[in-house]
Amino acid sequence: MNLPGIRSRLRGAALLALLPLALTACGSGDAGGTAAVGAQASPAPTDDPVAAVRTVESVAALLPAEVREAGTLRVGSSIGFPPGAYYPNGTDKAPAGQDIDLADAVAKVLGVRLERQDASFETILPAPGSGKYDVGTGNFGVTTERLKTIDFVTYINDGQGFAVRKGNTALTTKVTDLTQLCGLTIGTGAGTTFEATLTAQKGVCAKAGRKPYDVKVYSENAATLTALQQGRIDVIMSTINGLRYQAAQPASRTTFLGEYHRLDVGFAFKKGSPLTKAFQAAVNELIKDGTYARILRKWGTSASAIETSRINPREHA
Q1: 209 burial level (CB within 10 Å; 0-12, 13-18, 19+)
Q2: pLDDT confidence of residue 40
Q3: Residue 159 vs residues 29, 76, 128, 261: alpha-carbon distances, Å
Q4: Is the pLDDT of residue 106 over 60?
């Protein structure tokens, strides 16, 4: 999806103190921006559907014995945009968001504690293979290319979309074809599916006899929206849920231009990880007992619900 938290911690903290929103670029999830200067940080909803979750021994038994004995899992989390994962009260306080709640709920079903480490989006996917993290979260979209080196356990369906500054007449309708972007400057996140899509399709404008679009890649969530508001880019490509959430906040002054491409989103593991079956079973347990639906309802992402978690599904056509 590649729906996305990428930023330097210090600069992001300063900006998020002033601005509520961060976009993502999908992994779907993946990189983003913030809202207009002077806005307050978005408060997190107060309900806590995770509180009632208990360990399910039959699911916890799917974990490797050494993991059960240790009782912890190392999680690399890309944090920076609502509703997925962000810091509503500053980076010195706990993060909140859909991805945070889902990961915490899965951990409770499995009877383990998460050791969460904040990391930039583009550094997490290579990390499970190196052993730095046991699992990665960050609205990572499942793509054919990523499946070559990463195992995924799906938990939502998000994807790619576009947004413009409110009142911008350069692009006023839903983007269904990238030729609609010809001659425009697009901002997106580093290492995301958005960047990959725009790079792979950059020749479409020449084929159509039109001026090519330009892509500017940002490694910080705050930078993308700032560039949009300052007119340095014409359009943002990011996650459906992140852009839709952002457009609903008046201070962001953006207009969501609809869905472009749906992607399954999942927890990321090293190839061949023994953790995937346990995580899949835990997500399905949360779907069955209703916790999953309550978490998505809390964050306004019910339209991204899945019926069952899968391991390594094919990328959507």
Answers
A1: exposed
A2: 36
A3: 8, 21, 23, 6
A4: yes
Give the number of other Cβ atoms within 10 Å of residue 295's Cβ.
Answer: 28
Give just the sign of the alpha carbon dihedral 126, 132, 135, 138: negative
What residues have CB less than 8 Å from 289, skipping those under 6 apart? none
The DSSP secondary-structure symbol of 300 reads: T
Buried b (16+ CB within 10 A) or exposed e, 216-253: ebbbbbbbbbbbbbeeebbbbbbbbbbbbbbbebebbb
Mean pLDDT of all residues belonging to the chain: 85
The pTM is what? 0.80
Q: Is 212 exposed, middle or buried (0-12, 13-18, 19+ CB in 10 A)?
A: middle
Phi, psi of 30 (to 5 degrees): -165, -70
Q: Which runs of E-coded beta strand occur in 211-306?
A: 214-218, 235-239, 254-270
pLDDT single digits (tens) 193-240: 899 899 999 999 999 999 999 999 997 767 898 999 999 999 999 999
Helix (H) or strand (E) run with residue 277 in it: helix 276-289
- Helices 98-110 and 276-289: angle between axes, nearest 10 degrees: 100
